[in-house]
Amino acid sequence: MTELPNSREQWETMAAELTINGRAFINGEYTDAASGDTFECRSPIDNRVLAQVVSCDQADVDQAVANARATFEAGCWSRMAPAARKQVMIKLAGLLLEHKEELALLETLDMGKPISDSLSVDIPAAARSLSWSGEAIDKVYDEIAPTPENEIGMITREPIGVVGAIVPWNFPLLMACWKLGPALATGNSVVLKPSEKSPLTAIRIAELAIEAGLPKGVLNVLPGFGHTAGKALALHNDVDTLVFTGSTRTAKQLMVYAGESNMKRIWLEAGGKSPNIVFADAPDLRAAASAAAGAICFNQGEVCTAGSRLLVEENIHDEFVAMVIEELQQWKPGHPLDPATNVGAIVDQQQLQTVLNYIEAGKQDGALLQTGGTQTLSETGGYYVQPTVFTGVSNKMRIAQEEIFGSVLSVITFNGEEEAVSIANDTDYGLAAAVWSQDIGKAHRVAKRLRAGSVWVNHYDGGDMTAPFGGYKQSGNGRDKSLHAFDKYTELKATWISLG
Ligand code: NAD
């Protein structure tokens, strides 16, 4: 077995030797766009050009959807026995792990996250999503209705057909695999549209899927610049279901497209502004402070569940904020290919500017900047921001209401349970929340009243493939992960049989 690269130099060498493929994948083959258009894929680490990537449009979407439909109708995958589909899924998961250094490197170069995170979080979790869904699919049973003696009522699940999947850039391969796992396991054909900011790993796994035994045409990958390819997919009359992870703004637009076209089913995982509520009776304030720092710094704060609103009980405010700032010393932007780095580059200049604009808005609205607040490492040509903390934040301020998608923490004080719940729920979003208290009754009461799809007690960001993940309110609908995810990719059929 070859050893893992364990220094920045070794990763740089591997990066220099990497062959990067930027082509679309339709019907089992890499191809250019019908228009011949491409766009530059640049690394946010230092702004270097990584590849020319194919820019798909309507014609390519039409082609990919037609192939996906033909493959679905042919039944080579959709009617394959679940136990046989399982084997392919598990093999594909294994191939992801076999190629984990290459995939991790592509992910880090493409979107700037620390290589140690790509390697230990993104790629293993993506593989796990595929293997978990594959493992589950030959263990789920259909139902028989409680009928009179002379009838049988069967309730069966069927694959829905052609699935369009549009995914974001913050966990490119992982978000793709949260969709691909249940979509493929249930027998659908998929057209996947990765973000223009991070298309490389999606392009690469299309090839690995063929190697794993997935029939041609079942998985198609269409990179594209701007909205063109995603819009064409969302408006397509032969796409049965559209699954999406991304911003709330785009999610709303996709609902319009579904209504304007064939009323395709539409499932949305969107933004968040998650409250992390620390009561004075938290079991371990130091652990809570460490988690609060991690909750805003992990993945440069580019996380839908980032703990971006830190609600602190008034009587521990000063002590606790001091601890959080101390803990932030552990989180420093650095070169993403250095295995010691835990805060990487912001995905691109536009997102960097968004984060800096919000920092400015926080100052203008009267919040108190306690640490950070500036760009750093600009001499690299890449995009880095110091983790930032504002205190004195009112929940009405823009930095408390709008998703920043960067390491900008808004600290808000409260007094008692009622006020904590009221501030926590005073948001358009409802993706996640955390509560820290050693009073089990209080923790349960607050957890129950929080309007969020995931609630963590005395830690932050728990969960695995066994638990559903998704949002209340404008954080979306439906759930990724767990057996509940299969609901998005299947139709329920009632077959009623008269026994005469
Ligand atoms: P985005 O909405 O800008 O883009 C997401 C995807 O949609 C990309 O592939 C993009 O090309 C495509 N797209 C954009 N506009 C489109 C349009 N008009 N028609 C069709 N496709 C379009 O989001 P982003 O900036 O890539 O990702 C960050 C967002 O994702 C954040 O809001 C974050 O909270 C959210 N997110 C949510 C979850 C979750 O599970 N709830 C997980 C990760 C990220």
From TrEMBL:
Residues forming the catalytic site: 269
Domain Aldehyde dehydrogenase intervals: 31-494
Keywords from the UniProt entry: Oxidoreductase
CDD domains: ALDH_GABALDH-PuuC
Signal peptide: none
InterPro entries the UniProt entry points to: Ald_DH/histidinol_DH (IPR016161), Ald_DH_C (IPR016163), Ald_DH_CS_GLU (IPR029510), Ald_DH_N (IPR016162), Aldehyde_DH_dom (IPR015590)
Keyword Protein transport tagged: no
Family the UniProt entry places it in: Belongs to the aldehyde dehydrogenase family.
The protein's name: Aldehyde dehydrogenase
